[in-house]
Specification:
Elements: E1 2-7, H1 12-20, E2 26-33, H2 37-47, E3 51-54, H3 57-66, E4 73-76, H4 77-86, E5 92-95, H5 103-111, E6 115-118, H6 122-138, E7 142-144, H7 147-157, E8 166-171, H8 189-192, H9 202-210, H10 212-224, E9 232-236, E10 242-247, E11 253-257, H11 263-271, H12 285-288, H13 302-313, H14 317-333, H15 341-352, H16 361-376
């Protein structure tokens, strides 16, 4: 029986991970949240983990009282998150926390020899070289959970060792597909959160609206599959049925298709190399009827260009890009800046913070901090 730690168990990916647990042979040993302790208590009583963590200290105190009649250890803060990742006895850690907060626990889990079911793309965006090097050093597998990277992973596994010539990274286009940049200046929080296909958390939904999410995924794919960014082509695919594809030396393309449901890639990451029945509805191509593809509009969605430039430079640019974007998205969600201000603030951070090519983990954390400070003013 596989032992699983779920970091961010009360978020979108975390709750869907919990949902597929009856389909697999697994024991949950750790669960974490930021502040959603009522749901975490419910999960803990159902799944009986060894330990839980609430990042927020006051929330952790309240959770400890709620679980006082159990033998579950209640932790808090980054130290608690790292302990759940590295010291819970897990075989595999689902990193479903949102943002830069996932980097340190992911690195700790890798150094403890845990396989990673990676849903936290920011870990590779900010420190992809360091993370992939550590995974190789400690002999652990990085199993992608993002639907696109899971699709690429599945295509690569079907290729019988043939190297990838190009990745075709699909994007839904978000709620503002077809609009020009100036048309998006007045877009509201509610409009930006109205994703046409996927049910996701607020931050990633805004990233989809700006298309920064696809830029971050390009950087993630670059590290996961050891390809230069120019060999990763972003393609807008409105139906979200083709989750991504790979092209080989002879021009043949293999794609992975399925309904837009995150439970399938989550389950596959936890059961690989086995496939087991999944509760996701089956797809009918006849009902889908048509599949459309478009080139992205780089002028309307400048976040894509910012991400591609950061990818080409590597070094600390991923950390600056991500830190600035997280801060700017937070401001937008709180009504402090406009929708198009997000990319503009990210661009300002990238232009302002001096570039550093050779980086350590401390450099990544420093770049992230500097980017947030610039965006927040």
């Amino acid at each position: 029986m596989k032992k699983i730690a779920i970091l961010g168990s009360t978020g979108s990916i975390g709750t869907q991970t919990v949902d597929i647990l009856p389909s697999i042979d697994a024991e949950v040993v750790a669960l974490t949240t930021n502040r959603r302790i009522n749901l975490l208590e419910e999960q803990a009583r159902a799944l009986h983990p060894k330990m839980v963590c609430a990042m927020d200290e006051d929330a952790a105190k309240a959770l400890k009282i709620k679980l006082a009649d159990t033998d579950i250890k209640v932790l808090t803060g980054m130290d608690g998150l790292i302990a759940c990742a590295a010291e819970s006895g897990a075989d595999i850690v689902v990193t479903a926390v949102v943002g830069m907060v996932g980097l340190l626990p992911t690195m700790a889990a890798i150094k403890a020899g845990k396989d990673i079911a990676l849903a936290n793309k920011e870990t590779l965006v900010c420190a992809g070289g360091l993370v992939m090097s550590a995974a190789k050093q400690y002999g652990v597998r990085i199993l992608p959970v993002d639907s696109e990277h899971s699709a690429i992973f599945q295509c690569v596994q079907a290729a019988n060792g043939n190297p990838i010539d190009k990745i075709l990274l699909t994007a839904s286009g978000g709620p503002f597909f077809g609009k020009k940049f100036e048309e998006m200046r007045g877009m509201t929080r509610e409009q930006a959160l109205a994703h046409p296909n996927w049910s996701m958390g607020a931050k990633i939904t805004i990233d989809s609206a700006t298309m920064m999410n696809k830029g971050l995924e390009l950087i993630e794919a670059m590290w996961l599959y050891d390809l230069p960014p120019e060999d990763i082509e972003i393609v807008v695919h409105r139906e979200s049925i083709v989750h991504s594809a790979v092209e080989f030396a002879d021009g043949a393309v293999i794609a992975q298709l399925g309904l837009p449901d995150m439970r399938l890639p989550i389950q596959l990451a936890l059961t690989w190399p086995q496939r087991v029945p999944c509760k996701v509805p089956r797809m009918s191509l006849a009902e889908v009827a048509k599949l459309t593809f478009y080139a992205p509009d780089y002028e309307a969605f400048p976040a894509l260009n910012l991400a591609k430039h950061a990818a080409s430079l590597k070094g600390d640019r991923g950390a600056v890009l991500n830190g600035a974007n997280e801060a700017a998205v937070g401001l937008f969600l709180n009504g402090k800046i406009g929708f198009t201000d997000i990319a503009e603030r990210v661009a300002y951070a990238l232009d302002t913070i001096p570039y550093k090519k050779d980086i350590t983990l401390d450099d990544v954390l420093a770049a992230d901090k500097a980017a947030r400070e610039i965006v927040l003013g």
